[in-house]
Specification:
By secondary structure, this protein is of the alpha/beta class. It contains 11 helices and 18 strands.
Length: 361
């Protein structure tokens, strides 16, 4: 029996990923920690990690031990970096596996020091320069460095912080860069192997530091710029697609979908086999959104349902069941879609559900 094709799928373009990585390297002039948390922003954690594992990166940024463990089980050689504070129950595994944590509190520092008594743990120090999500405040840095100087179970190999508004507030962000650089310059014993990182995608594209030697792009790697002026230089990695399952000819005045959106004209309505159960946001209902069918924009009709949406194909001369539709991708940017959904592209990408088959090319 031949296996039927999926109703909804995502095409993942490996060449676009490589293009974006090279742009990040050229633009920053720094080493790159590729951020692949959240299932590589919905693109597929393992497949993206395998592709990036060939690129001689110092780290792959993950959110937790579950993601790090998945990489290790798949034979990924690039070291996982745990972004953010760790739970007490996670730390023994981090120490045993040689993953790199960022120390966000004195309690973490003390615990990792105990765990590393026989084999020191390589760790980075997290600085809070304005994010408020963990790390040492400027007035705590001296005490943290003093404790680390006595912590034989920890080998400090880097320092980092995070930008909360690099895509929104350049005045604050420039001040944050200055604060971070000043804090880093007060750390003794730094050398060329000491990793210093602050910039996310927006920070990498639009700001300069006098101390950093490592950038942490996330969204940029997947071909979407948090700063629109740089979008043309990037290539979207994911294209979300579906296909027409049937076409109905509906009269003016007929209702469409839940809530009965009333048609204002005789309409040729195509049913596509995906909905919010696949991660296509319900909040796009009634927002003048279109999909691409046969290279033509076709407006969304009525509300997005769990498994299906309806689009207006009245203007298409040729349109048949089985025809492909692009929901977002190179021709319909997910960043544009996210504005209409009143959310952010990060959320849409990471919410594409597992029943959407990923195809890698």
């Amino acid at each position: 029996m031949t296996e039927s094709p999926p109703r909804a799928w995502a095409e993942i373009d490996r060449s676009a990923l490589h293009h974006n990585l090279q742009l990040a390297r050229r633009h920053s002039g720094e080493e790159v920690m590729a951020v692949i948390k959240g299932g590589a922003y919905g693109h597929g954690l393992v497949e993206i990690a395998k592709e990036l594992d060939k690129q001689n990166l110092p780290f792959l940024g993950v959110a937790n031990t579950g993601e790090a463990r998945c990489l290790s089980k798949e034979g990924i050689k690039t070291r996982p970096y745990i972004l953010g504070a760790t739970l007490q129950s996670e730390r023994e595994e981090i120490a045993a596996c040689g993953w790199t944590p960022c120390l966000c509190s004195f309690e973490e520092m003390e615990h990792f020091n105990l765990l590393g008594k026989d084999s020191p743990i390589e760790a980075h120090l997290a600085l809070d320069t304005g994010m408020g999500r963990g790390g040492f405040l400027p007035h705590q840095l001296g005490e943290a460095l003093e404790k680390l100087s006595k912590a034989s179970g920890i080998k400090l190999t880097g320092v980092g912080s995070h930008l909360p508004v690099a895509d929104e507030d350049p005045v604050f962000t420039r001040k944050q860069f200055e604060l971070f650089d000043s804090m880093v310059e007060s750390i003794p014993g730094r050398n060329e192997k000491f990793h210093i990182h602050l910039s996310n995608s927006a920070g990498l594209l639009d700001y300069q530091s006098r101390t950093t030697n490592l950038a942490r792009p996330g969204l940029l790697l997947y071909g979407i710029s948090p700063l629109p002026k740089y979008q043309k230089a990037l290539k979207p990695v994911m294209a979300l697609k579906s296909r027409i399952s049937m076409i109905n000819h509906l009269p003016k005045g007929h209702g469409v979908s839940y809530g009965r959106t009333i048609l204002k004209r005789d309409t040729k309505a195509a049913i596509l086999g995906l909905g919010y159960g696949d991660g296509y946001p319900r909040s796009l209902s009634g927002k003048e959104v279109s999909v691409l069918i046969n290279n033509s924009p076709c407006p969304l009709l009525g509300r997005v349902t769990m498994d299906q949406i309806i689009v207006d194909v009245t203007e298409l001369e040729i349109c048949c069941p089985g025809d492909e539709a692009e929901l977002f991708g190179p021709n319909l940017l997910v960043s544009d879609l996210s504005k209409k959904a009143e959310t952010i592209p990060w959320e849409i990408l990471t919410q594409i559900t597992p029943r959407v088959t990923r195809f890698y090319r």
